[in-house]
């Protein structure tokens, strides 16, 4: 049994909040961000591209859906990050970091949208945001 000196808090100790006190969420906790990454480049065989996107989905388990054509693709997924800057930085590295392992074409990133979960759900509810990613997976445009 671990002993804690009186007057000191142990790591991970529970603390109480007096009735009526408001709980404030710490600001540095990760949040969920909806990411849409658009890439394009020279035409590639559709079968090769589909296999590469399926491998990317396997390598990056939070990938929701990919849509593709011979010269462009759109990848949508949820990213857990502390803030928008961190989520965008991860998204901007995704294509390049997985290019070799997934066999992705040497395309460039031509678009990036990162929105928080609340904004995503608000847009969907109002009918003008990206529709929910169904069916999940890799699909042609």
Q: What percent of residues adopt helix (DSSP H or I)?
A: 25-40%
Secondary-structure element series: EHEEHEHE
**Distance linking N and C termini:** 60 Å
> What summary fits the major beta sheet?
5 strands, mixed
Sheet-strand content, in percent, reads: 25-35%
The coarse overall form would be globular
pLDDT below 50 for ≥5 consecutive residues: which ranges?
1-16
Q: How confident overall, as mean pLDDT? A: 83
Structural class: alpha+beta
* Tally of helical runs: 3
The beta-strand count equals 5
Q: How are the strands ordered across the major sheet?
A: 4-1-3-2-5
Gyration radius from CA atoms, angstroms = 21 Å
What descriptive keywords fit this protein?
141 residues; alpha+beta; 5-stranded mixed sheet; disordered N terminus
Give the helices and strands, then pairings.
Elements: E1 31-40, H1 46-59, E2 63-69, E3 72-81, H2 84-102, E4 108-116, H3 117-126, E5 137-140
Parallel strand pairs: 2-5
Antiparallel strand pairs: 1-3, 1-4, 2-3
Structure characterization notes:
- The model is unreliable at 1-16 (pLDDT under 50).
- A 5-stranded mixed β-sheet has the order 4-1-3-2-5.
- 30% of the residues lie in helices and 28% in strands.
- By secondary structure, the protein is of the alpha+beta class.
- The relative contact order is 0.22.
Offer a concise description of the structure:
The protein is an alpha+beta fold and 141 residues long.
């Amino acid at each position: 049994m671990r002993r804690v000196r009186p007057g000191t808090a142990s790591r991970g100790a529970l603390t109480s909040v007096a009735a009526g006190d408001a709980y404030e969420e710490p600001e540095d906790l990760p949040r969920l961000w909806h990411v849409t990454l658009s890439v394009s480049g020279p035409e590639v065989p559709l079968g090769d591209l589909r296999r590469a996107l399926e491998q990317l989905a396997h390598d990056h388990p939070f990938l929701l859906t990919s849509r593709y054509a011979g010269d462009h693709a759109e990848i949508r997924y949820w990213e857990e990050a502390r803030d928008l800057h961190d989520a965008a930085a991860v998204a901007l590295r995704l294509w390049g970091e997985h290019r070799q392992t997934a066999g992705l074409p040497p395309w460039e990133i031509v678009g990036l949208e990162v929105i928080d979960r609340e904004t995503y759900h608000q847009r969907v509810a109002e009918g003008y945001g990206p529709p929910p990613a169904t069916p999940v997976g890799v699909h042609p445009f």
